[in-house]
Every structure is written in structure tokens, then in C-alpha cells.
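Continuing the series of single-chain predictions for the mutant panel. This is the parent chain; the variants come on the following pages.
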Amino acid sequence: MLLLDINPQILFLHLHSTLRWLALALVIASIIKSLIGLTGGSQYAKLDNIFAASFVGTMHLQLLIGLIMYFFTSPITEAALADFGAAMKNSELRFWAVEHGFAMIIAVVLAQVGRSKSKKKTEDKSKFKTQLIFFGIALLIMLWAIPWDRAFG
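Parent structure:
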């Protein structure tokens, strides 16, 4: 019965917020491992693959949860979608209705493309370089699009 009493809006918000930290930790670990591999000449190992796959998987999960929130549980996007013209004139509503989601979709695409391209490479340095570029750009977009004023509250 306790599970049925949980508000889906709060559940998805907390899940999405918590997974953000996992996604950030995984992309940073992947970038650091790629930098070490690229500069140190190490082999692309099982751990490198695990970090990359886990990062991309977490990003896909974040996207799914974000889309559920956007279309079904968020009162903020509900208000924005009710009067989209007015929402575009309000910086906070515009951020949630357009900017956050669009930027994060781009970050997910970059993460997936980087992962797919690096898997096709045959040389370890090429794998590391590809991951470093795509994951690095994805990280920059993520850092811009995360609502930092709400990150610790």
C-alpha cells in the first residue's frame, strides 16, 4: 500500500535528480580514463567499456524519465504547454519547456554517437579520442543545462 501512496511527480523528479549525479560521475570517469588512455598509450580495457556503456545507458534512462516528466507529471511543463507563447517570454518556463530538454537530448545523442563510433574503431587511441571528444561535448552541454540552483535542494 505504501508504494501506491507515492506521488508519481515526486518519484520521477527525485529519480531524475538522483540519476543526474550518476550520469555526471560516469561521464567524468570516462573522460578521465580516455585522457589517460590517449596520453599514456594504454589499451582500451573492459573497465573503459563499462564506464562508457554505463554512461550512455544512464543517459538513455535519464531521457526516458525526463520525457515522462515533461509530458505526464510536470506541472511546470503543463503550464508552459498551456500557453507556449507566454512561456517563451518567461525565462524559467522557457528553460523547462525548451532549453533543458533540447540540450539534454543533444547530450544523449552525442553520448550515443560517441559510444557507437568508438566501438567501431580498431585502434585504442582512436577509441579514447572519439570518446573524449563526444563525451566532453556532451558533458559541457549537460553542465550548461543542469538547473544548478535546484541541484542541492
